[in-house]
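$ ./design --mode recover --in tokens.txt
reading tokens...
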């Protein structure tokens, strides 16, 4: 009996390790954080056309952990690469930044959100079976994870809108995402002006 118990105990530890440890950096809760606009010292690219400056930065793992409350894309099968785009508008009219005007195979927000989700199922079961508190711990863990994942979805939608309006004198940041296969260090993008005379401002990004 003692031997059987020991085998079960060892199996339990292995299971907990296999399920929980690969995502130690992930927490079941998630707090949305505001992005800080890029500037000339931390951007990998910056260019100004007609008083409209576009700045771009390829985010590092540490950047991601700050922006996404401790989470990152390192565990994705095909690593997701986030880039921050800041548009600083010193012109007299509003300008529009649209995803469709960025010449990259951008990932949709649902794909990005799922890559940041805390996987609730297996971890909740492992918590219920092998962590102190048993079933209660597993249930609480699952509820926290579900709420955290919902916050992730809302955060990605807010930070990666299809169309962003930047008013005159304002500065706005957004995130775009590609996978490893779609990443390009050089790509074209454009910003459209509003007002009586509409123009397209083209930028050749080189990171």
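writing sequence...
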């Amino acid at each position: 009996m003692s031997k059987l118990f020991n085998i079960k105990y060892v199996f339990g530890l292995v299971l907990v390790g296999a399920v929980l440890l690969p995502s130690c950096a992930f927490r079941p809760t998630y707090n949305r954080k505001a992005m800080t606009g890029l500037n000339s010292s931390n951007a990998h690219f910056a260019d100004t056309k007609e008083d409209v400056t576009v700045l771009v930065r390829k985010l590092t793992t540490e950047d991601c952990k700050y922006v996404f409350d401790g989470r990152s894309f390192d565990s994705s099968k095909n690593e997701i690469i986030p880039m921050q785009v800041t548009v600083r508008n010193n012109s007299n009219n509003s300008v529009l930044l649209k995803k469709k005007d960025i010449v990259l195979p951008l990932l949709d927000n649902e794909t990005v959100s799922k890559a940041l989700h805390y996987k609730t199922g297996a971890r909740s079961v492992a918590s219920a079976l092998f962590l102190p508190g048993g079933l209660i711990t597993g249930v609480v863990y699952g509820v926290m994870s579900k709420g955290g994942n919902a916050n992730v979805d809302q955060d990605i939608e807010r930070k990666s809108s299809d169309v962003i309006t930047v008013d005159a004198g304002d500065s706005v940041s957004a995130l775009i995402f590609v996978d490893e296969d779609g990443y390009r260090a050089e790509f074209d993008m454009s910003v459209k002006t509003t007002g009586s005379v509409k123009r397209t401002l083209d930028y050749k990004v080189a990171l």
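exit 0
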